Amino acid sequence: MQIITSVVSLMFILDISISAVRIGSFNLHQYGSKKAANVTLTDTVAKIINDFDIAVIQEITDVNIKAPYVLFDALNRVSKTKPYTMTLSERVGRSSSKEQFIFFNRESTSGVKLINYYLYEDAEDYFERPPFIGTFEVTSKGSSGVKYFTIMDVHLRPDSAYQELIDMRRVIRDFIIKYPRYFTDASTSLSQALAQNVIDATDSKKPSLKSNHPILIIGDFNADCSYISAKRQETLRSINFVDFTWMINNEVKTNTRRTCTYDRIFINGDNFVKAIVSRSNTTVDFQSRFGMTLDQALEISDHFPVKFDIKW
């Protein structure tokens, strides 16, 4: 599969120090031509995304692939002196309804650069929408010890969310095989990483991946309420993803109606987790920020963004 494009704005070299970096994820709920044509709505979305140094985006739906560029332009009007780059995935989806993922990165404040990206090659059709995977290099290195990390951007199919989440272990295995250098130079060897990344986990055979290369699974998991029951969530926590830190727990309601925790951030990587600013992992309540009614907020999205802050 070939990625359509990586759009890079002219970046100014700034002599600045990077403080806390904000990484956020936002399902834009059918952001297509109609939403893109609404200037007020698009400008509001841009203002929300501008709070993030790295933004992980789901559900860009424009069949003509113009909407992401409209949003990109609006975002860089908001952030004129510190522009973002945009890395856009190919359109994906089993049905006629297809979507794109985006990584927005404001390099001057994020202290990272995207060094490779791809869509998971889903030959076995495990996913409605194959995850979009990007690896970042930390260019403003601090005391955390984090040099590289990988984000897996997901939008799981609601009625298959449990199985698709379990199948993310296949995506992790594929990444380890595709980029062995991140594991052969780590405390965990390549063979150990593959063995520790248990795919068909059971109570007696749990995954125990422990590497110096952090892996983040971020996005709309549809991981709550009628889609993934509390019992299945506990199985995921205690067995399938026992080696990941769940940064967004059920106390945090991520849908705009504030009833379910659909959006999640899973992290594997002790150094990365330790560098996260305490209590920074939560939602971004744009409804309150902009003084919106519920109906007005739902016009933006039926999801709140989720985020955390980290110090490199």
UniProtKB/TrEMBL annotation:
SMART domains according to UniProt: DNaseIc
GO biological process, one term: DNA catabolic process
Gene3D superfamilies linked to this entry: Endonuclease/exonuclease/phosphatase
Nucleus listed as a keyword: no
Active site: 99, 155
Signal peptide span: 1-20
Species assigned in the record: Adineta ricciae (Rotifer)
UniProt entry keywords in alphabetical sequence: Disulfide bond, Endonuclease, Hydrolase, Nuclease, Signal
Family named by the database record: Belongs to the DNase I family.
Record GO terms (molecular function): deoxyribonuclease I activity; DNA binding
Disulphide bridges, residue numbers: 225-260
Pfam family name, one: Exo_endo_phos
CC terms in the record's Gene Ontology section: nucleus
Annotated Endonuclease/exonuclease/phosphatase domain residues: 25-303
Name of this chain's protein: Deoxyribonuclease
